[in-house]
Amino acid sequence: MSHKLQVGEMEASYLTDKEIWGHFNYIFSSKSRNSTTYKFVLIKSLIENLYNANEKLELHYDSLFNSFSKIYWNLVIHHDLNQINMVGKKAEVQSILLNVQSKHKIPNTFVFDKLSNELQIFIVNKVKKKCKVNVMGAIYGDTSGTIFDFDNEQEVLRFNPAFFSFMQRYQRVLKYMSNYQLAIFLEKFNEQGDTSRLLLKVENVSKRSSLDPFYQVLASFYGGKCFYCGKTIKKKEQAHVDHFIPWSFVQADQLWNLVIACTACNLSKNDKLATDVFLETLIDRNGNFLTMPELKIREDMMVYTSKKLKDLYEYSIDNGYTDIWVPRKKLAGD
Protein backbone atom coordinates (compact mmCIF):
# COMPACT_ATOMS: atom_id res chain seq x y z
CA MET A 1 0.00 0.00 0.00
CA SER A 2 2.74 2.44 -0.96
CA HIS A 3 0.19 5.09 -2.04
CA LYS A 4 -0.75 5.53 1.64
CA LEU A 5 2.81 6.22 2.80
CA GLN A 6 3.44 9.51 4.62
CA VAL A 7 7.24 9.31 4.39
CA GLY A 8 9.31 7.62 1.72
CA GLU A 9 13.07 7.18 1.93
CA MET A 10 15.10 6.70 -1.22
CA GLU A 11 16.01 3.04 -1.67
CA ALA A 12 18.89 3.58 -4.11
CA SER A 13 20.90 6.66 -5.04
CA TYR A 14 22.58 5.38 -8.20
CA LEU A 15 20.70 3.92 -11.14
CA THR A 16 21.64 3.43 -14.76
CA ASP A 17 19.65 5.06 -17.57
CA LYS A 18 18.38 1.60 -18.50
CA GLU A 19 17.00 1.05 -15.00
CA ILE A 20 15.32 4.46 -14.96
CA TRP A 21 13.75 3.88 -18.39
CA GLY A 22 12.42 0.63 -16.96
CA HIS A 23 10.67 2.51 -14.17
CA PHE A 24 9.08 5.05 -16.52
CA ASN A 25 8.01 2.31 -18.91
CA TYR A 26 6.30 0.59 -15.99
CA ILE A 27 4.49 3.78 -14.92
CA PHE A 28 3.14 4.23 -18.45
CA SER A 29 2.27 0.55 -18.93
CA SER A 30 -0.89 -1.39 -18.17
CA LYS A 31 0.96 -3.11 -15.31
CA SER A 32 0.85 0.10 -13.27
CA ARG A 33 -2.45 0.77 -11.52
CA ASN A 34 -3.80 3.81 -13.34
CA SER A 35 -7.46 4.09 -12.38
CA THR A 36 -7.23 7.89 -12.61
CA THR A 37 -5.00 10.38 -14.39
CA TYR A 38 -3.08 11.23 -11.18
CA LYS A 39 0.22 9.61 -12.13
CA PHE A 40 0.36 11.18 -15.60
CA VAL A 41 -0.40 14.63 -14.21
CA LEU A 42 2.18 14.20 -11.44
CA ILE A 43 4.88 13.31 -13.97
CA LYS A 44 3.93 16.41 -15.99
CA SER A 45 4.10 18.49 -12.82
CA LEU A 46 7.50 17.10 -11.85
CA ILE A 47 8.88 17.93 -15.30
CA GLU A 48 7.51 21.47 -15.08
CA ASN A 49 9.18 21.91 -11.69
CA LEU A 50 12.63 20.49 -12.35
CA TYR A 51 14.06 24.01 -12.26
CA ASN A 52 12.19 24.93 -9.08
CA ALA A 53 14.27 22.42 -7.14
CA ASN A 54 16.96 23.96 -4.95
CA GLU A 55 20.65 23.03 -4.89
CA LYS A 56 19.85 20.04 -2.67
CA LEU A 57 17.33 18.91 -5.32
CA GLU A 58 14.49 19.61 -2.88
CA LEU A 59 11.11 20.62 -4.26
CA HIS A 60 8.36 22.00 -2.05
CA TYR A 61 4.83 20.75 -2.45
CA ASP A 62 3.41 24.25 -2.99
CA SER A 63 5.27 24.53 -6.31
CA LEU A 64 4.51 20.97 -7.34
CA PHE A 65 0.80 21.09 -6.56
CA ASN A 66 0.37 24.53 -8.05
CA SER A 67 1.23 22.91 -11.39
CA PHE A 68 -0.84 19.83 -10.56
CA SER A 69 -3.91 21.94 -9.66
CA LYS A 70 -3.55 24.10 -12.75
CA ILE A 71 -3.36 21.11 -15.07
CA TYR A 72 -6.34 19.47 -13.38
CA TRP A 73 -8.46 22.62 -13.37
CA ASN A 74 -7.90 23.17 -17.07
CA LEU A 75 -8.68 19.52 -17.87
CA VAL A 76 -11.70 19.16 -15.59
CA ILE A 77 -13.31 22.61 -15.67
CA HIS A 78 -12.10 24.26 -18.85
CA HIS A 79 -12.24 21.13 -21.05
CA ASP A 80 -14.88 19.13 -19.09
CA LEU A 81 -12.90 15.88 -19.16
CA ASN A 82 -13.54 13.00 -16.75
CA GLN A 83 -10.42 11.78 -14.92
CA ILE A 84 -11.37 8.29 -13.70
CA ASN A 85 -12.03 4.94 -15.37
CA MET A 86 -15.34 4.25 -13.59
CA VAL A 87 -18.68 5.26 -15.09
CA GLY A 88 -20.71 7.60 -12.89
CA LYS A 89 -17.80 8.34 -10.52
CA LYS A 90 -15.31 11.16 -10.27
CA ALA A 91 -11.70 11.30 -9.13
CA GLU A 92 -11.38 12.98 -5.72
CA VAL A 93 -9.44 15.95 -7.08
CA GLN A 94 -12.00 16.26 -9.85
CA SER A 95 -14.76 16.48 -7.23
CA ILE A 96 -12.85 19.15 -5.29
CA LEU A 97 -12.58 21.34 -8.38
CA LEU A 98 -16.18 20.84 -9.45
CA ASN A 99 -17.35 21.79 -5.94
CA VAL A 100 -15.24 24.97 -6.04
CA GLN A 101 -16.64 25.84 -9.45
CA SER A 102 -20.20 25.30 -8.28
CA LYS A 103 -19.79 27.22 -5.02
CA HIS A 104 -18.23 30.26 -6.70
CA LYS A 105 -20.31 30.00 -9.90
CA ILE A 106 -17.23 30.01 -12.12
CA PRO A 107 -17.89 29.58 -15.87
CA ASN A 108 -16.08 26.85 -17.82
CA THR A 109 -14.35 29.51 -19.89
CA PHE A 110 -12.15 30.43 -16.92
CA VAL A 111 -8.69 28.86 -17.05
CA PHE A 112 -6.80 28.50 -13.76
CA ASP A 113 -4.71 31.66 -14.24
CA LYS A 114 -7.84 33.79 -14.42
CA LEU A 115 -8.95 32.80 -10.93
CA SER A 116 -8.13 35.17 -8.07
CA ASN A 117 -4.87 34.55 -6.21
CA GLU A 118 -6.83 33.74 -3.06
CA LEU A 119 -8.93 31.13 -4.84
CA GLN A 120 -5.86 29.61 -6.53
CA ILE A 121 -4.16 29.21 -3.14
CA PHE A 122 -7.33 27.69 -1.65
CA ILE A 123 -7.55 25.16 -4.50
CA VAL A 124 -3.85 24.25 -4.31
CA ASN A 125 -4.11 23.62 -0.55
CA LYS A 126 -7.21 21.43 -0.97
CA VAL A 127 -5.61 19.45 -3.81
CA LYS A 128 -2.30 19.16 -1.96
CA LYS A 129 -4.01 17.76 1.13
CA LYS A 130 -5.77 15.09 -0.90
CA CYS A 131 -2.77 14.16 -3.04
CA LYS A 132 -0.42 13.77 -0.09
CA VAL A 133 -2.45 10.69 0.79
CA ASN A 134 -3.00 9.10 -2.61
CA VAL A 135 -0.43 10.35 -5.11
CA MET A 136 3.05 10.84 -3.67
CA GLY A 137 3.40 7.25 -2.50
CA ALA A 138 1.98 5.81 -5.72
CA ILE A 139 4.79 7.10 -7.95
CA TYR A 140 7.28 6.24 -5.21
CA GLY A 141 5.98 2.67 -5.20
CA ASP A 142 5.99 2.35 -8.99
CA THR A 143 9.71 3.24 -9.03
CA SER A 144 10.56 0.88 -6.14
CA GLY A 145 11.28 3.83 -3.89
CA THR A 146 13.98 5.31 -6.10
CA ILE A 147 12.56 8.45 -7.76
CA PHE A 148 12.60 10.68 -4.68
CA ASP A 149 12.47 10.96 -0.92
CA PHE A 150 9.25 12.52 0.31
CA ASP A 151 7.88 13.77 3.61
CA ASN A 152 4.21 14.69 3.71
CA GLU A 153 4.51 16.46 7.04
CA GLN A 154 7.36 18.69 5.87
CA GLU A 155 5.73 18.90 2.42
CA VAL A 156 8.95 18.44 0.50
CA LEU A 157 10.45 15.86 -1.83
CA ARG A 158 14.08 15.39 -2.79
CA PHE A 159 14.88 14.11 -6.25
CA ASN A 160 17.21 11.18 -6.66
CA PRO A 161 20.22 12.79 -8.46
CA ALA A 162 20.19 10.03 -11.09
CA PHE A 163 16.48 10.58 -11.83
CA PHE A 164 16.93 14.36 -11.81
CA SER A 165 19.74 14.21 -14.37
CA PHE A 166 17.81 11.69 -16.47
CA MET A 167 14.65 13.82 -16.48
CA GLN A 168 16.65 16.84 -17.61
CA ARG A 169 18.39 14.95 -20.39
CA TYR A 170 15.22 13.24 -21.64
CA GLN A 171 12.75 15.95 -20.68
CA ARG A 172 11.20 16.33 -24.11
CA VAL A 173 10.63 12.60 -24.58
CA LEU A 174 9.19 12.19 -21.08
CA LYS A 175 6.88 15.14 -21.68
CA TYR A 176 5.63 13.60 -24.93
CA MET A 177 5.16 10.22 -23.24
CA SER A 178 3.17 11.63 -20.33
CA ASN A 179 1.04 13.81 -22.64
CA TYR A 180 0.32 10.90 -24.97
CA GLN A 181 -0.53 8.44 -22.22
CA LEU A 182 -2.76 11.04 -20.57
CA ALA A 183 -4.57 11.65 -23.88
CA ILE A 184 -5.01 7.89 -24.43
CA PHE A 185 -6.50 7.51 -20.95
CA LEU A 186 -8.86 10.45 -21.48
CA GLU A 187 -9.98 9.12 -24.85
CA LYS A 188 -11.08 5.84 -23.26
CA PHE A 189 -13.24 7.47 -20.61
CA ASN A 190 -14.55 10.55 -22.38
CA GLU A 191 -16.71 10.99 -25.44
CA GLN A 192 -14.98 14.17 -26.56
CA GLY A 193 -12.91 13.75 -29.68
CA ASP A 194 -10.04 11.49 -30.63
CA THR A 195 -6.51 11.22 -29.27
CA SER A 196 -5.04 13.90 -31.53
CA ARG A 197 -7.56 16.52 -30.39
CA LEU A 198 -7.20 15.50 -26.76
CA LEU A 199 -3.42 15.58 -27.07
CA LEU A 200 -3.59 19.18 -28.26
CA LYS A 201 -5.62 20.09 -25.17
CA VAL A 202 -3.26 18.18 -22.86
CA GLU A 203 -0.17 19.83 -24.32
CA ASN A 204 -1.52 23.30 -23.60
CA VAL A 205 -3.10 22.91 -20.16
CA SER A 206 -0.02 24.39 -18.46
CA LYS A 207 0.30 27.45 -20.67
CA ARG A 208 -0.15 30.75 -18.85
CA SER A 209 -3.00 32.87 -20.15
CA SER A 210 -1.02 36.11 -19.76
CA LEU A 211 2.56 37.15 -18.95
CA ASP A 212 1.53 40.70 -18.04
CA PRO A 213 2.58 40.34 -14.37
CA PHE A 214 6.11 39.55 -15.56
CA TYR A 215 6.04 42.46 -17.98
CA GLN A 216 5.29 44.80 -15.08
CA VAL A 217 8.46 43.59 -13.33
CA LEU A 218 10.69 43.49 -16.41
CA ALA A 219 9.53 46.85 -17.79
CA SER A 220 11.43 48.71 -15.07
CA PHE A 221 14.74 47.13 -16.04
CA TYR A 222 14.89 46.59 -19.79
CA GLY A 223 15.59 50.21 -20.69
CA GLY A 224 13.02 50.40 -23.47
CA LYS A 225 15.10 48.27 -25.84
CA CYS A 226 14.72 44.78 -27.26
CA PHE A 227 16.87 42.26 -25.38
CA TYR A 228 17.98 40.70 -28.67
CA CYS A 229 18.40 43.36 -31.37
CA GLY A 230 18.64 46.45 -29.19
CA LYS A 231 15.89 48.24 -31.11
CA THR A 232 14.03 50.91 -29.16
CA ILE A 233 10.48 49.75 -28.38
CA LYS A 234 8.25 52.81 -28.51
CA LYS A 235 4.88 51.29 -27.64
CA LYS A 236 3.87 48.77 -24.98
CA GLU A 237 1.93 46.79 -27.59
CA GLN A 238 5.22 46.16 -29.39
CA ALA A 239 6.94 44.80 -26.25
CA HIS A 240 6.64 41.03 -25.86
CA VAL A 241 7.67 38.89 -22.89
CA ASP A 242 9.74 36.07 -24.37
CA HIS A 243 10.94 32.82 -22.84
CA PHE A 244 14.68 32.82 -23.53
CA ILE A 245 14.71 29.02 -23.27
CA PRO A 246 11.55 28.17 -25.25
CA TRP A 247 8.41 27.54 -23.20
CA SER A 248 7.76 24.37 -25.18
CA PHE A 249 10.83 22.91 -23.48
CA VAL A 250 10.86 24.34 -19.98
CA GLN A 251 7.04 24.71 -19.65
CA ALA A 252 7.41 27.10 -16.73
CA ASP A 253 7.38 30.86 -16.30
CA GLN A 254 10.43 32.02 -14.35
CA LEU A 255 11.59 35.62 -14.16
CA TRP A 256 15.19 34.53 -14.76
CA ASN A 257 14.19 32.98 -18.11
CA LEU A 258 12.08 35.90 -19.35
CA VAL A 259 13.12 38.93 -21.41
CA ILE A 260 11.36 41.69 -23.31
CA ALA A 261 11.66 41.47 -27.08
CA CYS A 262 10.35 43.57 -29.96
CA THR A 263 7.64 42.17 -32.20
CA ALA A 264 10.03 41.26 -35.03
CA CYS A 265 12.42 39.33 -32.78
CA ASN A 266 9.63 37.61 -30.86
CA LEU A 267 7.95 36.37 -34.05
CA SER A 268 11.23 35.41 -35.70
CA LYS A 269 12.63 33.56 -32.67
CA ASN A 270 9.33 31.78 -32.01
CA ASP A 271 10.22 28.31 -30.63
CA LYS A 272 13.97 28.51 -31.29
CA LEU A 273 16.96 28.78 -28.99
CA ALA A 274 18.89 32.06 -29.19
CA THR A 275 22.63 31.99 -29.80
CA ASP A 276 24.72 31.60 -26.64
CA VAL A 277 25.93 35.21 -26.81
CA PHE A 278 22.58 36.11 -25.28
CA LEU A 279 22.98 33.43 -22.64
CA GLU A 280 25.89 35.36 -21.14
CA THR A 281 23.92 38.61 -21.37
CA LEU A 282 21.01 37.03 -19.54
CA ILE A 283 23.29 35.62 -16.84
CA ASP A 284 24.67 39.12 -16.28
CA ARG A 285 21.17 40.58 -16.09
CA ASN A 286 20.04 37.94 -13.62
CA GLY A 287 23.11 38.66 -11.53
CA ASN A 288 21.95 42.28 -11.33
CA PHE A 289 18.47 41.11 -10.34
CA LEU A 290 19.96 39.20 -7.41
CA THR A 291 21.43 42.45 -6.04
CA MET A 292 17.96 43.98 -5.83
CA PRO A 293 16.20 43.21 -2.53
CA GLU A 294 12.72 43.33 -4.07
CA LEU A 295 13.66 40.72 -6.72
CA LYS A 296 16.02 38.37 -4.88
CA ILE A 297 13.21 37.38 -2.47
CA ARG A 298 10.94 36.19 -5.30
CA GLU A 299 10.42 32.41 -5.20
CA ASP A 300 11.66 31.94 -8.76
CA MET A 301 14.83 33.97 -8.12
CA MET A 302 15.54 32.18 -4.83
CA VAL A 303 16.08 28.89 -6.69
CA TYR A 304 18.02 30.49 -9.56
CA THR A 305 21.73 29.97 -10.21
CA SER A 306 23.73 30.76 -13.33
CA LYS A 307 24.68 27.07 -13.48
CA LYS A 308 20.99 26.14 -13.60
CA LEU A 309 20.45 28.42 -16.60
CA LYS A 310 23.59 27.14 -18.37
CA ASP A 311 22.51 23.53 -17.76
CA LEU A 312 19.02 24.29 -19.06
CA TYR A 313 20.51 25.80 -22.21
CA GLU A 314 22.66 22.71 -22.83
CA TYR A 315 19.82 20.30 -22.04
CA SER A 316 17.55 22.11 -24.48
CA ILE A 317 20.12 21.48 -27.22
CA ASP A 318 20.36 17.83 -26.14
CA ASN A 319 16.57 17.65 -26.45
CA GLY A 320 16.57 18.78 -30.07
CA TYR A 321 16.59 22.59 -29.96
CA THR A 322 19.44 22.77 -32.42
CA ASP A 323 18.04 25.39 -34.80
CA ILE A 324 19.96 28.27 -33.20
CA TRP A 325 18.39 31.68 -33.76
CA VAL A 326 20.19 34.98 -34.40
CA PRO A 327 18.29 38.30 -34.68
CA ARG A 328 18.49 40.25 -37.89
CA LYS A 329 20.90 43.14 -37.84
CA LYS A 330 19.46 46.44 -36.72
CA LEU A 331 18.99 48.70 -39.72
CA ALA A 332 19.75 52.41 -39.76
CA GLY A 333 16.70 54.26 -38.54
CA ASP A 334 15.41 51.33 -36.48
UniProtKB/TrEMBL annotation:
Q: Is-annotated flag, keyword Hydrolase? A: yes
Q: Hydrolase as a keyword? A: yes
Pfam families in the record: HNH_4
Protein origin, superkingdom: Bacteria
According to the record, the segments passing through the membrane are none
Concerning CDD domains, the annotation shows: HNHc
State the protein's name: HNH endonuclease
Keyword list, A-Z: Endonuclease, Hydrolase, Nuclease
Gene Ontology molecular function, alphabetical: endonuclease activity
Q: Where is the HNH nuclease domain?
A: 213-267
